[in-house]
Amino acid sequence: MAFLRSVCAQRTNLVYSCSGSGSLSAGRRQYQSGPNKSAAAAVASSNVCQTSNDEESSYSPKQHQQSLRKRVFQQVLFAPAFNQQQYYQQRGIHTNDTKSQVTATQSLGSDAKSSSGYTSSYRPPPRPKIPENPQRDPLDVSFNDPNAAFKSKTTWELVRAYLVYIICSSEKLVEHNMKIMKFTKAILGEKLFTMLMKSSFYGHFVAGEDRYKIVPTLERLRSFGVKPILDYSVEEDLSQEEAEKREVESSVSSMAPAPAGDEEATLPQYKIDKTFADRRFKVNSARTYFYLNEATCERNMETFIKCLEAVSGATFGTGITAIKLTALGRPQLLLQLSEVIMRTRKYMEDMVGGQGNVLTHHKTIKDLEKYYESLGDNKNVKEFLKNVTSDKEGILHLFPWSGIVDENSQLSDTFRVPDPKTGQMRRLTSQIPHKEEEMFRNMIRRLNTIVKTAAELDVRIMIDAEQTYFQPAISRITLEMMRKYNKDKAIVFNTYQCYLRQAFSEVNTDLEQAKRQNFYFGAKLVRGAYMEQERARAEALGYPDPVNPDFDATTEMYHKTLTECLRRIKILKDNGEDAKKIGIMVASHNEDTVRYAIQKMKEIGISPEDKVICFGQLLGMCDYITFPLGQAGYSAYKYIPYGPVQEVLPYLSRRAQENKGVLKKIQKEKRLLLAEIARRLVRGQLFYKPKGNYVPI
């Protein structure tokens, strides 16, 4: 009971309704081929709420008696542990002790079985009672109000944050942080080291060890107007040699040499170079996955699905999960696909002139027929033109991408174009072996499974941007997932890195495709994570630097791209169309960019209630931006990492490195932290307990 009282003391005033609900599962999934397939029929009724008549009819009297006896036994003999589980059950989740009781028959409508063999038994948890008069605060756009920034924090959390930032300001400590953490662990032992990390870096930057222990953090965020983007931040602590070995092995195809003249030499940007095989090189703000085997990719898929279920149970449709495509398949496939896309653009440019994506040329099927008319009545050309994707405004794609994301196309046969001189079909990529074709279909299947699950749970998916040699394939696949799943709302979001010279044109092109194919467009705008690596690689391999020349050029690109998105949203509003056809996340720790977005929203006439623009920052960074936004009624998100202490050390190492690079922001955050600590000292609020009365927009 002591534990329950302590938990209740820390709870926010966000109260969850329990009417008419049974077991409040957060959507646990069962693997169909697993050993416990038949065991999923066990049924548990809620210990907090009365079971509905429909649920009572779903199990036999004998099962009901067994369940009742078990519940009474637990309540009598194991009251403390049982009450802890009640805490979680009231929030619509199951812990390891209770999740085995969840029935596979409790599904929303009928069970949704995916091609990967997963069956959803998701039942939406009861929605929270919304306060009758939710609080809204005026926004200080200078972001200098320490009370608004930190009213969601205890005084101890403020002191901890200040100490963490002091350490992050020490260049020597940050430079050797991973060695220091490993040395400290060796001295203290695992248990003491874990306690130390939870009271310092881990406690500041990470929400908890698993999807059940992060619930109190998510609830507190919600009560202060902030929503989560969940990310299971476990990373492998690979040596440079091991990372290079994995990357080279997974990026080289086992294909036989192509026939002479069947393909051109590999474009420099898409060559594998051992110097850059460790993709963590000069990258602090992004996680890197290295391919090991298909089983690892399956486990990554399962992890992403658990993130979806966790965020769904805690946020009721407002949450987001971030994923990386390199976690779901062999990177060599993305490398090849990216090169094919760039060769396709070059093929179109050679035929019709100009530059850019195929749809930017605004050519029709009849225009292409004219280019091929010198070949006469050519069967190959006719077959090729039959598969070109077009609409009344012109050609969208030379290849049937819808078939590719539906897992039913052979890549080697798909990416072929007629030679304008001979009419012979030539491949834009080498012949891909059957095994690698299967690997690609597995990658697409995994992504389809994740996005289907997100749609079922009403959670959004943000597919992270990666290096430029992967990005054409990632963006192309993501856009096709949007076309497939964003029919009624934006479920899938793409990420655009504004330090790239082509960022504006890429966003513009994708907005145009969304408009012409009538799907909801979602975009996360970031400055980018791979700038130093991209510059070094371009110089070493001899291709044009894809990065903007300086910080100001990147800021200009970011603002230009954001302005174009807002302009198109205004057009939708003025035409009486659904403004939510375009959804944008301003993911930036730069307060000038956030101010710019707010000012443009006001100028164009977009209000926070339109729910088309949201803002996002990392947990433990720039709280003075996120919380005032959420408390003023703007859609604000925190990127929430979680995972076991020992396995998130690489993530913590990167956060320390990233903070070292933004000392100006740290100075401001330290100043505001000291101001709030001093204010509480003066007012006798050292034991202040955060209690929010806000509702996220």
UniProtKB/TrEMBL annotation:
Residues 217-666 form the Proline dehydrogenase domain. Residues 98-138, 238-262 are annotated as: Disordered. InterPro entries: FAD-linked_oxidoreductase-like, Proline_DH_dom, Proline_oxidase. Its cofactor is FAD. It holds the Pfam family Pro_dh. Keywords: FAD, Flavoprotein, Oxidoreductase, Proline metabolism. GO terms for cellular component: mitochondrion. GO terms for molecular function: FAD binding; proline dehydrogenase activity. It catalyses: L-proline + a quinone = (S)-1-pyrroline-5-carboxylate + a quinol + H(+). Residues 98-122 have a biased composition (Polar residues). It comes from the Eukaryota. Its EC number is 1.5.5.2. Pathway: Amino-acid degradation; L-proline degradation into L-glutamate; L-glutamate from L-proline: step 1/2. GO terms for biological process: L-proline catabolic process to L-glutamate. SUPFAM superfamilies: FAD-linked oxidoreductase (SSF51730). Converts proline to delta-1-pyrroline-5-carboxylate. Belongs to the proline oxidase family. This is Proline dehydrogenase. It comes from Stomoxys calcitrans (Stable fly).
